[in-house]
TrEMBL record:
<dbReference type="InterPro" id="IPR036086">
    <property type="entry name" value="ParB/Sulfiredoxin_sf"/>
</dbReference>
<dbReference type="GO" id="GO:0003677">
    <property type="term" value="F:DNA binding"/>
</dbReference>
<dbReference type="Pfam" id="PF02195">
    <property type="entry name" value="ParB_N"/>
</dbReference>
<dbReference type="InterPro" id="IPR037972">
    <property type="entry name" value="RepB_N"/>
</dbReference>
<dbReference type="InterPro" id="IPR050336">
    <property type="entry name" value="Chromosome_partition/occlusion"/>
</dbReference>
<dbReference type="InterPro" id="IPR004437">
    <property type="entry name" value="ParB/RepB/Spo0J"/>
</dbReference>
<dbReference type="GO" id="GO:0007059">
    <property type="term" value="P:chromosome segregation"/>
</dbReference>
<protein>
    <submittedName>
        <fullName>Plasmid partitioning protein RepB</fullName>
    </submittedName>
</protein>
<comment type="similarity">
    <text>Belongs to the ParB family.</text>
</comment>
<feature type="domain" description="ParB-like N-terminal">
    <location>
        <begin position="78"/>
        <end position="166"/>
    </location>
</feature>
<dbReference type="InterPro" id="IPR003115">
    <property type="entry name" value="ParB_N"/>
</dbReference>
<dbReference type="Pfam" id="PF07506">
    <property type="entry name" value="RepB"/>
</dbReference>
<dbReference type="InterPro" id="IPR011111">
    <property type="entry name" value="Plasmid_RepB"/>
</dbReference>
<dbReference type="GO" id="GO:0005694">
    <property type="term" value="C:chromosome"/>
</dbReference>
<dbReference type="InterPro" id="IPR017819">
    <property type="entry name" value="Plasmid_partition_RepB"/>
</dbReference>
<keyword id="KW-0614">Plasmid</keyword>
<feature type="region of interest" description="Disordered">
    <location>
        <begin position="1"/>
        <end position="24"/>
    </location>
</feature>
Length: 341
């Protein structure tokens, strides 16, 4: 008996279905594994609050785990050497922190198996459909990974990968947009829509943002969790107006920016690129590299006004007042040096 038979995996890889097959078109409108979404009461949308959002997030995690449990039904969960497993041919994640996952697996073990398929080109190796973070964590811990092995076509793999990511909602917007752009290179739009559960309009916006932003800049910013479509579109518009994209990239790669978390890096770049409004006599907002509001500055020919919100930053306001005499003395000393030079 072959190794595949022992694992309960068919030795015959199914032929890729025709994109014109009506049965396939019907299946694309439903989750790959037939896991029904939980309907939401329309009234909930009008009265959504933080509690509802948290419950919805938990529901999504539960549905993602249900997908994985269904995959395991009737299939053997086996231990695989991580050295024989390759990532999906379609990358969906940017490098990120897995400390929480590492701690969880170290304490409780790997609770949910990953999904892999026999590698289509290399005998004896496997390719991940989903579970990349779990694979990375167990690899760092020096453990074997628990996995379900299934024969999947390329299309079935990316649909499973996309649907699992969509249910968990742990990919940031820009990671999803990049995933969509990579899918576009190999698959028709209906496959992308099925995989990512997005409509044509949102898909077009994702792709346009990826086309507008240099790949190196996206890499330098990172996944920027919590930063959505509108903010990325704003960045794309600002980059288009910038005198040089290279200067912007140099700014983001600076040690000052790279010391920030990814989302803060994004906010700091937006603050850096936004045009100043002094010429219209409107207050200029001064921000820290992390994008925190420090003060409003209003300049005219006659005076400069610096306004600090004492309620928001009382300690900073007191510090500025305390340092003003010192700053003035430093200014006078500098002016004196210029005159003597």
């Amino acid at each position: 008996m072959s190794r595949k038979d022992i694992l309960g995996v068919s030795a015959t890889v199914p032929a890729a279905p025709s994109p014109h097959d009506p049965q396939l078109a019907k299946s694309r409108t439903m989750p790959l594994l037939g896991v029904a979404r939980k309907d939401r009461d329309p009234a909930t949308k009008l009265t959504a609050n933080i509690g509802n959002a948290l419950r919805e997030q938990n529901d999504r995690v539960e549905r993602a785990e249900e997908i994985e449990r269904r995959l395991a039904e009737g299939q053997a969960v086996i231990d695989l050497d991580t050295n024989v497993i390759d990532p999906s041919f379609m990358q969906d994640r940017m490098p990120g922190d897995i400390d929480g996952l590492l701690a969880s697996i170290k304490e409780q073990g790997q609770q949910v198996p990953i999904l892999v398929r026999p590698h289509p080109q290399q005998s004896g190796r496997y390719e991940v459909a989903f579970g990349h973070r779990r694979l990375r964590a167990v690899t760092e811990l020096g453990l074997a990974v628990k996995a379900v092995v299934r024969d999947l076509t390329d299309e079935q793999l990316v649909v499973a990968q996309g649907q699992e990511n969509n249910e968990r909602q742990d990919l940031s917007f820009i990671e999803k947009a990049r995933f969509a752009a990579r899918l576009k290179e190999r698959f028709p739009r209906d496959v992308i829509i099925s995989s990512m559960s997005v409509d044509k309009g949102d898909l077009s916006k994702m792709l346009s943002i990826i086309e507008a932003l240099p790949a190196d800049l996206i890499d330098a910013i990172g996944p920027a969790p919590g930063i959505g479509l509108r903010s990325w579109q704003e960045l794309a518009d600002l980059i288009e107006k910038a005198s040089s994209a290279d200067n912007v990239l140099e700014r983001v790669l600076s040690s000052e920016f790279q010391a920030l978390q990814s989302a803060d890096r994004f906010k700091a770049l937006i603050a850096h690129l936004k045009p100043r409004r002094l010429e219209r006599g409107l207050p200029e907002v001064m921000a820290s590299p992390a994008g925190e509001r420090l003060a409003q500055v209003k300049q005219s020919k006659a005076k400069v006004e610096i306004m600090i919100d004492r309620k928001a930053t009382p300690d900073f306001a007191a510090f500025v007042l305390e340092q003003l005499p010192t700053l003035y003395e430093a200014h006078r000393a500098k002016q004196k040096q210029k005159k003597e030079a």
